[in-house]
């Protein structure tokens, strides 16, 4: 039976995911291909300032904070949060200055330059938001955590709806910045017993160094994954321009929808798989459970794919005329096909976490990045259509899934894991 808090959590997380999808589709329609391309460029850039500014502190809160929570060491969690907030601001400012210097050496349009400058402020506000998010999660305060995400998404969609037609991409970026900052401040000062305490910063250098060491490995994997996901956007901007990026980003909305949906599934099933495996300690049983979910999800995806082929063109003509051309139609279908190969990889990651074989996931993540980089470089050099960038997306996912299946069959499918 689900408790009241679990039901509230699931509802809020579902609404947050829905609002995230609504945000992308709404802004793509209001802004048009060029401005939406500019907005997409900033979103694909600021995340790396977030990673570098955090330098693993967000991941450290989750790892070290979870252990401290198990020991009921709440003061340690609070100190870890405050130190992370303080040092992440310093690190984010430092890397923002580096980023500012770099873009001044690149020949880019003034419009793009001004928007990229906003990514600095977006990164700093998002970084602090994420740290507070992690602080709540490690204490299993899932209702507060999900309410935080929902409030931010709701604020962006509601305010952005009125701002986007007037101030275009930069207006929407400012909406994101302010929304992150407002929610962070409200949560930080809501509980007087959990407000920021400067005394936590005394003699904290060794403390923060240890935290960074604990989070840097997870951070490295996340950076590689996001490089793989965003390198095509930078290449398209450089070779084909913002309009093409806007069209490609619109085509990728289907990918975001799938990831959000899978995230909701694994939010429930992932921890369940891990806890069950700790009891029966049999990889074959776990593999059978995951395979059943994969088969169900992939079959559902194929049925949706067939409907997509039939109705997609008329859907674009009716609701998104700015994106209604044969290039986008083909690009969306190719990306959708790639998703059918991405789904098993996403779910098999939980299997490797359960059997403590994260090194294989990191290895394949790095391989994915290298193959994507080489193929995208060729697309960039020959200034190919966005269709070819979508083909790279799909080909790489086929390659990765093939390696996953071969490895699983050789190592785990034949015999039990001991």
Automatic annotation (TrEMBL):
Subcellular location: Cell membrane
Keywords for this protein: Cell membrane, Membrane, Transmembrane, Transmembrane helix
Family annotation (InterPro entries): Poly_Biosynth_Transport (IPR050833), Polysacc_synth (IPR002797)
GO cellular component assignments: plasma membrane
Membrane topology: Multi-pass membrane protein
Domain of life: Bacteria
UniProt cross-references to Pfam families, sorted A to Z: Polysacc_synt (PF01943)
Residue intervals passing through the bilayer: 7-30, 36-62, 83-106, 112-131, 143-166, 172-190, 248-269, 290-312, 332-353, 360-380, 386-409
Protein name per Swiss-Prot or TrEMBL: Polysaccharide biosynthesis protein
Organism: Malaciobacter mytili LMG 24559
